[in-house]
Amino acid sequence: MRRFWALFFLAWPIVAIAWSWAAPSYGWWFYRPAQSPLGQEIDNLFYLILVIVTTVFIGTNLALFYVLWKFSDDGSPRKGSFSHGSHILEMVWTVTPAGVLLFISLYQMDVWARFRMTKNFDKEAVAQPLAEITARQFEWRIRYPAPGRKFQNKAEIEEWLKRPSRDDVYTVNELHCPANKPVLIHLRSEDVLHSFFIPDLRVKQDAVPGLVIPVWFEASKADHYDLICAELCGWGHYKMKGRISAESDADFQTYKRELAAKQAFDGVPAKTETKKEGEGQ
Amino acid sequence: MSTLDQAPPSSHGHDDHGPGKDGHGPAGHGHHGPVTLWMIFRQLPTFSKDHKIIGIQFLMTTLLMLMVGGALALGVRWQLAFPFQRMPILGDILFGSQAGVIPPETYTMLFTMHATVMIFLVIIPILAGAFGNFLIPLMVGADDMAFPTLNMLSYWFMWPASALFGLSFAFGGGPAGGWTSYPLLSALPTAAPGSGHAQTLWLLAVTFVGFSSMMGSINYMTTIINMRAPGMTLFRMPLTIWAMFITAILQAFALPVLTAAGFMLVADRTIGTCFFIPAGIVVNNSDPTVGGGQALLWQHLFWFYSHPAVYIMLLPAMGMVSDILSCMCRKPIFGYKPMVYSMAAIAGLGFIVWGHHMFTSGMNPALGMSFMISTMMIALPSAIKTFNWIGTMWGGNIRFNVPMLNAVAFVSMFIVGGLSGIFMAAVPVDIYFHDTYFIVAHFHYVLFGTTLFGVFGAIHFWFPKMFGRMMSETVGKVHFVLTFIAFNCTFFPMHLLGIAAFPRRLADPYHYSSLEHLLPLNQFITISAIVMGFTQFLLLGNFFYSMFAGKKVGRNPWEANGLEWSAPSPPGHGNFESLPIIYRGPYEYSSPLTENDFLMQTEYVPKTGQTTQVASGH
Fold it and tell me: Are the C-beta atoms of residues B588 and B579 closer than 8 Å to each other?
């Protein structure tokens, strides 16, 4: 019986590892590999940490198993060894993990800097923001600049963020964007906290009332991606669902133009639509 | 200093109840006026100032609240396994008007209150309140706490807190802003059904809990500094006491921030200040807010308390498990001083890592980097402690009884909880994992897997000191095995859910095409959680049954070294028959100075030729 408990405590890490090993084949893993270049780096980091952590997990559990197996009370009048510790061992298991942890922290700085430091953002994406997204209970309100509009400078973007232009194009929950290039959105909230989460692209950013936060992402291929609200925002938090549709640049321009036309349509199908939509409102 | 001029406990004047005085006599066996169960029970509903009674009051209350918090969790689990389906029996009673289905606003209330109850009414008070109270005077050799009245109040302040939490259910279905209560959801009454009066009551209740903790914290610090028995130097204190001491310091420094933040939020809600409310916010078509505030400020203030609070919820368990491990391995603790220093390091670093809860909040990214480094570094003392625990077992003579099994589970689960933390300490990876079930898995491994297993071990370990009887080993083992298996079946798969981006706090995530295939795994988790929940009745049953029918034992049933084991079981009022003198640290198991494999702190060993020095736990 005294060996039983050692085996008991060994059994569970074995089950845990087997379980994790089998998990991807049951779909209990990333829904799909990261669909963005930055996301791939995040995945790489994840797997690197996973390797380190699994090694430590196996090592410590084996050590635990060994001591439980070897040193369980066998009923003999044996005493425990009278040791109060070892300075050398303490040093070893202080310095080694410190090195590993420091390595992990420094190694990943770069990815974080690329994701969040504005100076590292793609210049083109910053100069021509894709849209402004305003989160509210329980939807994502999307405002694109007019089709074909080019912002001249930063001041113009700031002005655009402060007050809408007449020719802006609005939609809800369906964000279209060009694939294969970094795009930037300006995220804000109309009411409470929300969080803009696209799992497949490994992007998450809270929408904070009172702040306008630039967020960039890049979808590697034309596809649809779930947009989830990841910060509790009230009773309907669970249904604050959006969708990202990444498509070719041409498709995106067409989409935006059609959307603008639909928005400008006043119900009188007389004239053909021109590019100066919105004037008749 | 003051330890020496402290008179023997029998000369202290105390309130009249309790059998203490007549129990003092020569330490005859069975002749020291044993404390009966009735004496303890009679005092439970009173404003007793005896630290042992207060400890037991805390323990029973928190065990009750453990079941309440567990029931709330099962409500959450039901919804995640069978979203918007009729809950049999209970659903019909509670949600009859909604066809027995949990409505989404109730779901948000369920997880809010699950966390609230578990954190504020179970984990913090069971560690500091129950075990802190019961153990500190016994382990340092004091007759009671430094401030018995304050101590009594610290327990009774929990009741207004519980009452306010309970009352909050009457308003809009209960508070539903998450236990973190981030504004503006919690600041604007129109933001959600639970953001009305329920939220105000919730904040006031948390303030009461804060008062309770603060009174305890002052008491613990004073008692530990001033009331140690002669010979109980700081480095002869058990790690439990070190842990309680460090925890008390943490509480004293972190809590005022939460209390202040709570009052600021109450002011925002009731008298129109705008600490957290920016201008021009429109919620549910209400008038725009006047504003001027900043929602992120709350997160900073809240986590400035609540991250240290994570260690408040962990350190005492670490201390208690160290004591249990050393005793059951019949071996000195491995690296006593590194253990103390790492706890101090955890506490110190614990104050500068709060930002890791806010990596995706929109906080300055440069801050994110510094918080990431401090967070990584806090893993270091945790690693040192783990290695020292394994080192303690190495070369021991391990007795696999219920306290030991739970203590080993503590170490085993702490490894998982510690390692999974590294993923989210890495900021880029946390971008993905933040607010997913990976986080839920992580903190349940730490709070339940680690702390609660530690507490289970501690309950079994110190039960004989509390009631003079043993808890049933058999029932204890069954409870342990079932809890351990069900726990891992419940929480390990949550890592996998998190990797699959399954978000927290969604009443029904399955309408997302990328998440719908996770339903079967969630159903498995829910079944495991139900098993785990019901298993806890074994613990309660064992606890209460053993009080009356457990095997009677003497002072030191575990053959342990700690000072508390030289007091009678249960100790009378004033604890020790005479002032104890301490000769060594509490971990001198298997010492060559004695035939036995334990050597109590109070046992005087005459100097022999070769061994003149009594090791002091170094």
Answer: no
